[in-house]
């Protein structure tokens, strides 16, 4: 087993959510401190880390970013290194992302490049977002890179495949939080109450009409309610209902349509069910937009390799706060095939670990080209 597969397994056992990645940060720092230190400068930022590796004859700084947080999901895989944190799992592949980053860092720490390389270990990609804040940090301002690179595992592609494209790769996103408040009471006296479970159910059903009836059919959009909390027991009418979800669009203007329609439909529910509602659109993520020239050069470079197959993919409705880095710094993101039967954010996600060495070798050869 490669050292970086072992590292991935260690990290897989300790998933932590955004800005709580204390054990993860300690593990990463411990490893980074074991590398040759002559050219390294390491700075902690919240639960994240910046590692600056001085080049030998630098003309620019290239940044490589990995996210480090896990998700609140109870793991259901049968791997023999499962999550040791009940209710939490690396179900989006950030354990692989981190081991790949450490693999690249290890190589260049032993054999420095001409250019500087900045490694960014970023917290809270799944929320509330770390990229925008890291970008604004004084550390990043001091070490501002000229180019950014990031990857994300892709369960639908085979090991040895990568996929990307020039221009738009990932969607614009916004979280959606709605709270409905009515008058609870005894289940036998519904006429004396305002039942927020019924109101919430109507609301969720009506939200489904936004994509089908308010968004231009030639655009793409998603409105997903992923969490609904309401009620306490079967014979009490619920006083509150809380919905949380996410909205996605490929076109930034379509996001404004979604917000306007969510607001309008919620106001309609307030009237119809005689309740009060608050709508909160939180934590927008800017789209991931690849630099045409850089990503095309990377795709051509990779195509010339015999061991990696490059797929020109379509845009995805996933969100990534890596988009904030690419808004300011030219660069690109790509999908790394890991061939898992279960997808991202699934409790049975089980990426094939051979992809780790594929990615390290690809990135090291790209950086040394
Ligand atoms: C790659 C990936 O799965 N990213 C997450 C990002 C979450 C963004 C935000 N918290 C939201 O849910 O809107 C995704 O769900 O796409």
TrEMBL record:
CDD domains: M20_Acy1_YkuR-like. Its EC number is 3.5.1.47. Signal peptide: none annotated. It catalyses: N-acetyl-(2S,6S)-2,6-diaminopimelate + H2O = (2S,6S)-2,6-diaminopimelate + acetate. The active site is at 67, 126 (proton acceptor). Keywords: Amino-acid biosynthesis, Diaminopimelate biosynthesis, Hydrolase, Lysine biosynthesis. Transmembrane segments: none annotated. The keyword Hydrolase applies. Residues 175-265 form the Peptidase M20 dimerisation domain. Pathway: Amino-acid biosynthesis; L-lysine biosynthesis via DAP pathway; LL-2,6-diaminopimelate from (S)-tetrahydrodipicolinate (acetylase route): step 3/3. It comes from the Bacteria. It holds the Pfam family Peptidase_M20. The keyword Transmembrane does not apply. Belongs to the peptidase M20A family. N-acetyldiaminopimelate deacetylase subfamily. Catalyzes the conversion of N-acetyl-diaminopimelate to diaminopimelate and acetate. This is N-acetyldiaminopimelate deacetylase. It comes from Jeotgalibacillus marinus.
């Amino acid at each position: 087993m490669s050292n970086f597969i072992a590292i991935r397994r260690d990290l897989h056992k300790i998933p932590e959510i955004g800005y709580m990645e204390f054990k993860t940060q300690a593990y990463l720092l411990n490893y980074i401190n074991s590398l040759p230190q002559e050219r390294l400068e390491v700075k902690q930022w919240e639960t994240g880390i910046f590692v600056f590796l001085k080049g030998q004859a630098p003309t620019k700084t290239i940044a490589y970013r990995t996210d480090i947080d896990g998700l609140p999901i109870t793991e259901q895989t049968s791997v023999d290194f499962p999550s040791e944190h009940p209710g939490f799992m690396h179900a989006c592949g950030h354990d692989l992302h981190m081991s790949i980053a450490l693999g690249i860092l290890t190589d260049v720490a032993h054999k420095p490049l001409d250019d500087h390389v900045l490694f960014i270990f970023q917290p809270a990609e799944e929320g509330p977002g770390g990229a925008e804040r890291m970008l604004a940090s004084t550390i990043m301002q001091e070490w501002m890179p000229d180019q950014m690179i990031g990857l994300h595992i892709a369960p639908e592609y085979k090991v040895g495949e990568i996929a990307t494209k020039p221009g738009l790769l990932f969607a614009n996103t916004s979280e959606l939080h709605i709270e409905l408040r009515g008058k609870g009471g005894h289940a036998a006296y519904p006429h004396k109450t305002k039942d927020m479970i019924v109101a919430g159910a109507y609301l969720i059903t009506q939200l489904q009409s936004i994509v089908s009836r308010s968004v231009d059919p030639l655009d793409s959009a998603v409105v997903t309610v992923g969490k609904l909390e309401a009620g306490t027991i079967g014979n009490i009418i619920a006083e509150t209902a809380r919905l949380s979800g996410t909205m996605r669009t490929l076109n930034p203007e379509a996001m404004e349509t979604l917000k306007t329609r969510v607001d309008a439909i919620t106001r309609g529910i307030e009237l119809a069910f005689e309740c009060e509602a608050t709508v909160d659109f939180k934590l927008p993520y800017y789209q991931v937009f690849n630099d045409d020239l850089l990503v095309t050069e990377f795709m051509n470079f990779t195509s010339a390799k015999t061991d990696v197959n490059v797929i020109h993919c379509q845009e995805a409705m996933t969100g990534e706060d890596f988009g904030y880095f690419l808004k300011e710094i030219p660069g690109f993101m790509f999908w790394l095939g890991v061939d898992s039967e279960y997808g991202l954010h699934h409790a049975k996600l089980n990426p094939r670990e051979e992809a780790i060495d594929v990615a390290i070798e690809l990135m090291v050869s790209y950086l040394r080209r």
